[in-house]
Protein 1
Amino acid sequence: VAKHIQTYQDKEALTDTFLQVQKATDVDSALMVILQHLQKHFDRARIYLYDPNINSLIGHLQYGPELMRDFKSKIYPIDQDAYSLQTFSADHPRIYQTNTPEHEGRMQAVGTQNVENPKVVSEWADFPLTQYSGDQQVIIGKISVDNNITFIPRSKDLLNRQMVLISQATIAIHHATLQKSMTAQVAQRTQQLSATNRVLEEKDKLLSALQEVSNRSFSYLDQDEILDNFGKRIIQTGVFRSLMIAFVDHETETIEVV
C-alpha cells in the first residue's frame, strides 16, 4: 500500500511539474522547474548541454545545496568521460558510484580532485537527453542527479519514473534550438531583402534620372549644356558620388574625357 501511495504521489508531482514546464516563458525557466522537481528526490540536480562543434558537454544549470563552483559554461569532453559515453549508449538513466577507478579517471579528465570521504561510496545518475533524426541519434545534453550529501540510495524505479519529465527537457531544449535557428534565418533573410530593396531603389532613382535627362536633352542644342545637365541629374539621384563622361573616337582609337 505504501509503495502504491508513493507511486501515486510521484505521478501527481510529475503532472504538476509538467504543467509548470508548459507555462514557462523561456527554456531556462522550464529546465529549472525540472531540476527543482528532481532535487526533491535527490540532493542536487544539474543539466549539461551538448556542443557538437567540440563534442563536449557544457555546464548549464544546477539546483540544490552545496552547488558545484565554476559549473556554468565549464567544458566536459565526452571522449574523455567514460560515464558520458555509457550514458549516451543507452536510452535510460544509469547509476554510477564514486571512489572507483572509473570515477577517479573522470575527475582527472575534467581537472577535479575527489575531496569526498574515501570511505563513503556516493551515487549519482545520468539521464541522457537525446532524440532521433531518422536513424541517427542526436545528443542534446544530459541531466545528472546525486546523493553526495545524504548518501541515501535511490532505486532504478524512481529514476525510470522521471523519464517522462526528462523527455520534456529534451523537447524544451530542441524547441529553443529550433527557435534560435529560425530567428537567425529570418534575420539573415531580412538583411538580404533589405539589401535587395536598396539596390532596387537605387536602380529606380537612376532610371528616373536617365529618363528625365533624356526628355530634357531635346530642349538643348548645345552639347556642353546637354552633358552638364546630364551629369548634374545623375549625381542628384544620390546613387553615385562622382561621374565621368567620355567620348570614344573609334577612328583614332582614343578616349576623350569631357
Protein 2
Amino acid sequence: ENLRKEIKNSSKVNESVLNYLYATLLQKYLGNNIRAINQRGETRTKQSNDFLTWTATDFYDEINKAYEKSIKNSETLHAYDLLYYKEILEITPYSDVKNTSLFDFIFEKNITYYKSRIHDWRLNDEETIWPILMSSPNEFIKFNPEKVNNLSLKKMILLMQLNESYYLKNNKEKLDVAYYERLKLSKNNSTTIPLFQSKIEELEQTATNESFKQQLRLERVQYWYSITVKGGKKNYYPNALSLIDSMIKHKVNLNTLAE
C-alpha cells in the first residue's frame, strides 16, 4: 500500500522505476506462494487491494499493469543513465551501466517477462509469427500488432517496435543489437535456424561495431560446430575454423571465445 502511494506522488522517471520494482515484487511473491494462491477461488473482478486475498489471475493482471506503466515514459527514460539507479536496481556486474539508459534496462525486463508468458508463437490460428519477428527493423516497425491474437506476444512486439523506432533515428549500433536480440527469439525453433544464420551473417556485413561483429561471428562458429556430426557426411569444422581465424585477426577477446 505504501509503495502504491509513493508511485502516485513520484516524478515520471521515479514512477517508472517504482512500477518496475512493484511488478518484480509481485512476481516474486506469486512464485513463492503459487500453490496457496491457486487454491483461492477465482472471482470475476479483484475484490480488494489486499494482495493476500488475490487469485493468480489478479496477480497477473496487476503485474501486467505495473510493467506497462514502467515503460510508458519512454522518452524521459532514455535521458537517464542506468548508472544513477544502480543502488536500487539489481544490475548484473557485466552490465555496461555507463552506456545503458534506464529505458534499456526496463525495456529488457519487460521483454523477459512477456517472453515467459508466451506459449504460442503464432500470429493467429493459421500463420506463424517468425517471418515478422525476423524481418529487418524498417519492415518490422511497419507491422500492425493488432493482427496478433496472443496478448503477451502483441505487447512484446509493440515494445520492440517502440525500441527499434527510437534507435532507427538515434543510434545505429544499438539498433543492430536490438535487431540481433529479436532474431535470437527464433533460435529454439528448428524451422528458423538456417534463416537465423543467414540473417546474422547479413547483419555482420552491415554492422559497424567490431566487438558486436565478433559476437555474431562467434554465434556462427557455434552453429557450424553444432551441426557437424562425428562420422557424418558433411564436415563443417573447416567453416568454423575459418571464422575463428577471422576472429583472431580482428583481435577477438579470447575469454569470450573460450566460453
Protein 3
Amino acid sequence: PMSESKGDEVPLSEKSTSSTDIASESSIHQSLRSPHQSIESTVALGGKAFLLKIETPHYEGDASEYIDRRIAAARAGDAQSSYEIHNRIASCKRALNSGDADEYKAYASVEIGQEIGHCQGLIGRTELGDENWLSLAAAQGSVEARLIFAKDPKAIIGNLTEALKDPERIANYRRDAIDYLNESVSQGSVDSIEALADIHDRGIIADKSPEKSLAYWLAYQRAHPNSQSAASIARLSKLLQPNQIERSNEMSEAIYRSCCL
C-alpha cells in the first residue's frame, strides 16, 4: 500500500471523502485512511446515485517524490493512484509549457515558478511518459478518469493525424469510452449519464442519436434536475416523433434503474 501523504498535496477544503472507485478494495481503504488525498469525492443524490465533486488539487513539494509514493499501488491496480499520477504529471506539463510570456504573467507567476521547481525531478524521467496514466486509471475503474477519457480523445489516441493512421485504435477508443461510461452509470454516476447524453447528441465518439440523447437526459432529469437537462429535453423532444419519444422514455427508465435505484 501507499505511504501516508507527507504534506505534498494541500486540500482546498477539509472534507470527508468517499471513494467511488471500486477498482480494488485497497483503494477504498486507502481513501478512508487518508481522505484528503482522494481526488474523487462524491455528493449522494439518493439510492446509489451520486455526483462527483471535482476539485483541482493544489500541490506542494517534489513531484517526482509524489509520484514515486504512488507508483507501486498504481502498478498493482489502484485506479486512484494512477489517476493522481496522471494529474500530477499534467500539472507539471502545464507549468513547464506555460505558453507565451503574457499568458505566463497572467498566471500567478510566483506559483508557476514554484511548480516549475517542484517539477524539475520529472525532466528526463522518460519511463513515466511511456505509460498513459489516464488510460490506465480508466481501465482500473476510476469514475473521474473515465469521464476525462471520454471527453479528451487527444489524451488517449494522440492528435488526429496520428489517429487516422490507425483506425482500429480509434474504434477501440470509442468502444472503451462508451463501455466505461455505461459501467460508471451502473455504479450510480450521474455525471456519466450527462456525458452519454452529450455524446449521443453530438455524435462524435458514438452515433448521433437524438432518441438516445433524450433518453439519457430524461434519466438525468429524474436524478438531478437542472435548467440544462430541462432545456435539452425541450430541444430534443421537438426533433422527434411521438413514437420515438415513447422509445426514449422506455430507454430512460432502464438507464435510471441501472444508475439510481
